[in-house]
Amino acid sequence: MATIMTKGVLLALLAAVLGVGSAAYAEGVGDFVLPSSKAASLENCVEPTEYMRRNHFELIRHQRDETVYGGIRGDSHGLSGCVSCHVGYDDTGAPIEIDAEGQFCRSCHAYASVEMNCFDCHATVPRGEAWNHEVAAAHAHLTGSAPIGPTAAER
Amino acid sequence: MNHENESMNQGRRDFLGAAAGVSAAAVAPGVFLHTPVANAAARTDPVTDLHRWGLLVDTSKCADGCTACVDACDSENGLNLQSKPHGQDELKWENQRAVWIRKVKLQDNLTGHVTNLPLMCQHCEHPPCVDVCPTGASFKRADGIVMVDRHTCIGCRYCMMACPYKARSFIHEQVDHKLTRAPRGKGCVESCNLCAHRLDSGDISTACAEACSAEGHQALIFGDLKDPMGPLRQALAKTPSRQIRQDLGLNTGVRYAGI
Fold first, then answer.
1. What fold is seen in the domain B53-257?
2. In chain A, positions 131-150, which contact chain B (CB-CB < 8 Å)?
3. Domain boundaries, chain B
4. A28 and chain B: CB distance < 8 Å anywhere?
5. Is residue A34 a contact partner of residue A104, using CB atoms and an 8 Å limit?
6. Taking a C-beta distance cutoff of 8 angstroms, is the pair A152, B3 a contact?
7. Where do the 4Fe-4S ferredoxin-type domain residues begin and end (chain B) (predicted)?
8. Structure confidence by residue, pLDDT tens digits, B142-174
């Protein structure tokens, strides 16, 4: 029993050392997550951090077409999700534009020297996000809005 | 499916329940695939052609001087965040700024009768804007909503020329303030999308119809053209209505009564 526990402790220590090691490595390549953003309090992004670093644009681009053509807004891989989680806040609690100097998107894109034009059209702070649950419920009773029902084809 | 009509024969339901027995449990998960999104959650599966969204405008109820639908559309879709470029002529700006709904006033010169109506994208079944688009950016979604994929729009404005309803707008200048639900950028064409962000989030309404109801006019009814029991089809069945430029055979999703 004692040996098992010792092994457990050793494993935990090893894991801790490895964890610290990878965190230090992440800082080495530039960890641009802002302390004031929601992302800072989370373990990792919607996918593992290393995957996101290399492939986030593939995810965003894929989600973009799903959303535009399929109307899928319930997935977590969209640009609005990136912005709402990674946006930094100033001392007054107001969100700072995510493509501003020193902010999450801008600083890494500057480091990698990759042009970014999402924000020519898309909002840089979470503002007026798509219809949410609470507002929809509040409007459900109004005439002119109908509860969605199955069509003849579905019945 | 599990949302049967109120008028559904209870005897038949009992019979089906008894007959299906154990197999009903196995079928149930499949049934839920088609369960309507009543809990207002954002959708995770693509839109289908089981619905076709549309509007009925009762022009007899549309009040002169009321701009509730236009104002609601402007704030819902961030159109009120546009600003006049520095030094631009006021009249030119009024003509060029993006609008999704235009309030149109018609007067019969013989009788003097005045008709007011909101005119927006008519969400045609056979949209001319889609026909002429050289990049495929102008498209019709499976649920009948005609919109622009601004990621592929090159801003040629052929669609604006092709549209018989003058429903589309071009964004001439960089827009400083945008809403998350309504991206907007220089060099792209846009128009009414029947508040697709609401529909995709399970809220079956549009800002314009809601505002019209809130004003007490009830001139705009939004709903599903493919649901015979829905409010839109019920209203269409009761009221004579027509399409604007019906002669073009576009089968519009927006219908007008009283013109």
1. Alpha-Beta Plaits (3.30.70)
2. 131-133, 135-137, 139-140, 142-150
3. 1-35, 53-257
4. no
5. yes
6. no
7. 53-84, 144-173
8. 999 999 999 999 999 999 999 999 999 999 999
